[in-house]
Amino acid sequence: MSFLFYFFVEGFHLKITMLPSILLLFGLATTALSDGCPPDESIFPCTCIQNDFDVDATVTCLDEKLSLGNLKRILEVFDHQDSLAVELSGLNLGRVPEDFFQGVNVKRLELWQCPLESLGERPLTGLEDSLETLIISASVMDEDVNFKFPVGHLNNLKLLQLSDNSIPTLGDDWFKDGPKSLEHLILSDNNIGRLGHRAFAGIESLRILFLAGNRFGHFRRSMLPNPASKLVELELDNNGLTSLPENMFSNMPALELISLQTNGLNRITKEIFETVWEQLESLDMRGNSLECDSHLEWMLHAKSMVRLQGTCQTPPEREGVELKDVITGKAKL
Question: What residue range is the signal peptide (predicted)?
Answer without folding.
Answer: 1-34
